[in-house]
Amino acid sequence: MHTVRAAARGRSLAALLLALAGCGAPVTTAEVTGNVSLDGQPVREGLVSFESEDPDKSPGRGAITDGKYTAEAPLGKVKVLISSPKEIPGRKRKAYENDPKSKWIVETREGIPAKYNTQTELTYEVQPGKHEKDFDLKTK
Predict the structure, then answer these.
(1) Residues 6 or more apart whose Cβ sits within 8 Å of residue 69
(2) Sign of the alpha-carbon dihedral angle for 80, 124, 51, 24
(3) 11 within some domain
């Protein structure tokens, strides 16, 4: 009877040690934080996206608030896209054009030059661990 209990305890201990040994999933992302400015001024709000060259990796995204962002980015070489909406003064439209009860919304345009988003020239190499990466963007 004692040998059966000892064997069971031994198997339980082995299973626990195996679980504690780090048999989890491999690390595929890293935290990236930083500041985003345009012509020396903090970007008020927007989005930073980190898109891997590997199509099997999901992009990482982080909201920009008062010039600061935090994102979980995929490891490896990534393209960085930065976007920030700007209101068009005096331009409003219905959120749902064919709905008479639709709310009116202010129209926006992209406030960041295309070379930082739709035609991005920004790249970054994401390594494991926490990183700080600032983006000082220029309109000219």
Answers:
(1) 33, 34, 35, 36, 48, 62, 63
(2) negative
(3) no
Q: Is position 62 within any domain?
A: yes
Classify burial at 82, counting beta carbons within 10 Å of its beta carbon; exposed 0-12, middle 13-18, buried 19 or more: buried
CB contact at 8 A, 84 and 110: yes
Q: Does 41 fall in a domain?
A: yes
Would you say residue 80 lies in a domain? Answer: yes
Q: How many domains does the chain have?
A: 1
- Tally helices (H) and strands (E) across the chain: 1, 11
pLDDT digit string (tens) for 15-71? Answer: 544 444 455 668 799 999 999 999 999 999 999 999 998 888 999 999 999 999 999
- Total residues belonging to the chain: 140
> Any idea what the CATH number is for the domain that residue 101 is in?
2.60.40.10
User: Which residues span the domain enclosing 116?
Assistant: 25-137
Q: Quick one: tokens of 93? A: 């439209």
- The CA–CA distances, whole Å, from 61 to 11, 28, 46, 98, 106 equal 43, 14, 11, 32, 24
Q: What is the pTM of this model?
A: 0.73
